[in-house]
Amino acid sequence: MAWTKRRLLGQGAFGKVFLAQSSELLAECRRPSDVPVVALKCAKQGDSQSLLREEHVYTILGDSRYILKFLESGWGRDSNGNPEYCLALEFASGGTLKNHLGGRTLCESVASRYTKMLLKGLEHVHQNGYVHCDLKPDNVLVFPTGDAQEDVCLKLADFGRAKRRWQTGSLRLRGTLEYSSPEAVARGEHEVAADIWALGCIVYLMLHGHGMWDHLRGAGNSVLWNSIAQFQGRHLGFVSSLSANAKDFLRNCLRTNPRERWKAEQLLQHPFTRHGGFPS
């Protein structure tokens, strides 16, 4: 596997993501701009387990319109000559959903279309026996389509923290606190219902322009932790302009009891989602 890194796109605990092009194609092509770009996710040898796990999940999930496409993987060398493991993934020219939203409040018709795409991605993940465990706007990528009706396609990405459904293990928080469910925070439970909670938090953000817990920003993680662990559905606050369908959809995603939360296939049949106005 030989890739030429063009620029750094981002970095995290796992390693770094670069915009890259095939070295072989660059050697054969007169104009570098004609060579397709990919997102190259790289980790040092000692930190490669997360990428290996992510690669395995992508392999199991296979091809889906609403899941980021995995292209290939292999060992390479970083700029200092040290070994690194890399995943080549399709590049999202629209960036992340977080950047795409930019603090905006979406109208319900657009939020509904976006929600349907997220649900189709989650349904595919869950039907293939996995839980994402870290669903949030940073891990949803945006692909402009040029279509007037469906302006973008949203794809789920970053499966480094994913787990098998019903897999037992460490009772620690896997995902990002602001998008974690009460049972994940209080008891370390990460099953399908926890992904649905995270989806509800994203839909809340799209419809309100701010997150469910933004009012606690600056209060400290312990305050946020306790607020989520002790969450009661009656404390949900909606803007008055939300439709009854939107409110009902959010309540079914954000039920305190995970056994009462709707599953992806049920939410796809909810009036809020069905009236999104784009083809299935």
The main sheet orders its strands as 1-2-3-5-4
Give the biggest beta sheet. Answer: 5 strands, antiparallel
CATH class value of the largest domain: Mainly Alpha
The outline comes out as globular
Tally of individual domains: 2
What is the SS-derived class? alpha+beta
Count of DSSP strands:
9
Radius of gyration equals 19 Å
- Using the 3D structure, state the CATH architecture of the largest domain: Orthogonal Bundle
| Annotated CATH homologous superfamily of the largest domain | Transferase(Phosphotransferase) domain 1
What is the mean pLDDT?
90
Task: Describe the protein in words.
The protein is an alpha+beta fold. The protein folds into 2 domains: 3-90, Phosphorylase Kinase, domain 1; 97-274, Transferase(Phosphotransferase) domain 1 (Transferase(Phosphotransferase), domain 1). It has 10 helices and 9 strands. The protein has helices at residues 23-28, 49-61, 97-101, 108-127, 182-187, 192-208, 221-229, 244-253, 264-267, 271-274, and strands at residues 3-11, 16-22, 37-44, 70-77, 83-90, 130-131, 140-144, 152-156, 163-164. Helix 4 packs antiparallel against helix 6 (192-208) and helix 6 runs antiparallel to helix 8 (244-253). The two termini are 36 Å apart. One of its GO terms (biological process) is signal transduction.
